[in-house]
Amino acid sequence: MKSARKNVAVLAAAQALLMANNATVIAINGLAGYALASNKALATLPVTGWVIGAAIATFPVSLLMKRIGRRGGFTVGVFAGMLGAAICATAVAQGNFWLLCLGTLVFGVYNGSSQYYRFAAADAAPADFKSKAISLVLAGGLVGGIVGPEVSKLTVDMLATRYLGAYLALMVFLVMVLAVVQLLDIPPPSKRERLEPGRPLGKIASQPAFVVAVLCAAFGYGVMNLLMTATSLAMGICGHPYGAAAFVIQWHVIAMYAPSFFTGSLITRFGLPRVMLAGAVLLLVCSGIALAGISVAHFWFALVLLGIGWNFLYVGGTALLTQTYRPSEQAKAQGANDLAIFLVMATSSSVSGMLLNRNGWEMLNYLAIPFVLAIVLALAWLMARRRAPVAV
Fold first, then answer.
1. What is the reported pTM?
2. How far is CA 225 from the centre of its chain?
């Protein structure tokens, strides 16, 4: 247990730095894209590139970690992040929109590899500590949610070229991440774990719990990403200053990770499906508030609820997924799960800018509702199966 707690602390620190980077990227990618793109409908393409980079990396990184261990895999991801940040900085300095998209694509590899922080904590923890290990690692993102937007506000106009300072600041955080992940105390997989194939992925994915875990995490993340990606641009279109948009994004990221201090305990007390169902309800309320008005207060309240709802679905979905595979199967099960999440995220971020440009903020929120209802139905189905006499 002592080793598990140490790993949770290390991974929480890495998560904090990840979210400092991601909060900065979320705040500036759409705006930098809007400034550089000749076709403003493509403004969120740098955000999409970031998500696609993570999606491309997700499965290969998981398999790489099965061979060289978590620490080696995380280190490779950090170096990819450094390269991506350098390309983004060069793109902004040159005013090159497509180079910016390439940079965010490469930076996304770091984001994709870092999504395994939560799985690394869960897989190295005792069964009764898994949910708390996942939630405590994600709680580290709270620090990043506070620091990242503040750093972006301080650095966005620090240099003569707008946004250049913010992209260079990412490099500083990445150097710290590189140092932190070297402290991990998770042994590389044994030869047996590396070579044992386990069940086919199709067999693992046919389990009802696996289906619901992936659907809830993917749709929850997709809805969150759809609305979050468009928020800075939507607020700008509504006449709100950059500082107000950064404030809303900051509180959104805080709301994504602050509940992690107690989400694990809620899961222990009420069970996974109920906590995840509460998350879906919060996403529905978020859309309702966003549709009610476009003041800063409306954006703030909606994005806070969006963050909390995402947390319940993401932590719950991750914990549910860990119940569906054996140690030798974790690489492909986790890789398939995160690949599904990032494919949905890539789709949501790619249509976000176009829908906002053509149909407005209101249409985005209407579009989110059917996906949240699908989450509710999936959870109701799983709960009904678990109440049935035959075990799932």
1. 0.80
2. 8
Do residues 85 and 174 lie in contact, with contact meaning Cβ atoms separated by under 8 Å? yes
CATH number at residue 87: 1.20.1250.20
Residue 18 CB-half CA count within 13 A: 29
CA distance 352 to 120: 31
CA distance 216 to 382: 11
Residue 389 pLDDT level (bands cut at 50, 70, 90): low
SS3 per residue for 302-317: HHHHHHHHHHHHHHHH
Please list, in sequence order, all residues whose beta carbon lies within 8 angstroms of the beta carbon of residue 295, skipping any fewer than 6 positions away: none
Please give the average per-residue pLDDT across 333-351, as a whole number: 86
Which domain does 372 fall in, by range?
A: 2-387
The answer to whether residue 392 sits within a structural domain is: no
Asked if residue 44 is part of any domain, the answer here is: yes
Reduce the DSSP state of residue 185 to 3 states and report it.
coil
The two structure tokens encoding residue 289: 């508030």
Question: Rounded to an integer, what distance in angstroms lies between the CA atom of residue 292 and that of residue 296?
Answer: 12
**Residue in this structure with the two tokens 């966005």, named with its chain if needed:** 156
> What is the total count of domains within the chain?
1
